[in-house]
Amino acid sequence: MHNNRRALLYGLGAVGLWSTVATAFKISLNHLSPLTLVTLAAVTSWCFFAVTLAITGQWRDIWGVSSRARLRSLGIGALNRALYYVVLLEP
């Protein structure tokens, strides 16, 4: 029963947080272009994950991957974000 309650709370939390996304996009797009908004989101995400990797001590694990694989991952991640959001948000 404890896991069901926890799952319900996580689900409600996710719905509550996700429901604010449309409002945040609308307010942000009143002040920023879609490309600026996507760039800001990408930089914020990168900083968040960089700090998380540094705090957990997993930053060194990145260097165990080949530079080609790191560049490919970086390119695919940027392309995914850029294509999806710029196409979605561009009028």
Layout of SSEs?
Blueprint: H1 2-18, H2 21-31, H3 34-56, H4 59-62, H5 67-89
Helix pairs in contact: 3-5
Q: How would you sum up this structure, described in words?
A:
The protein has 91 residues and is mainly alpha-helical. The protein has five helices and no strands. The longest helix is centred in the middle third of the chain and has 23 residues.
Largest sheet: none
Shape: flat
Share of residues in strands: under 5%
**What is the number of E strands?**
0
Helix share bin: over 70%
Along the chain, the helix and strand elements come as: HHHHH
Poorly predicted regions: none
Structural class: mainly alpha
Whole-angstrom Rg: 17 Å
**Which whole number gives the mean pLDDT?**
84
Number of helices: 5
Give the distance, in angstroms, between the N- and C-terminal Cα atoms.
48 Å
Brief overview, please?
With 91 residues, this protein is mostly helical. It has helices spanning 2-18, 21-31, 34-56, 59-62, 67-89. Helix 3 packs antiparallel against helix 5.
Features of the shown structure:
91 residues
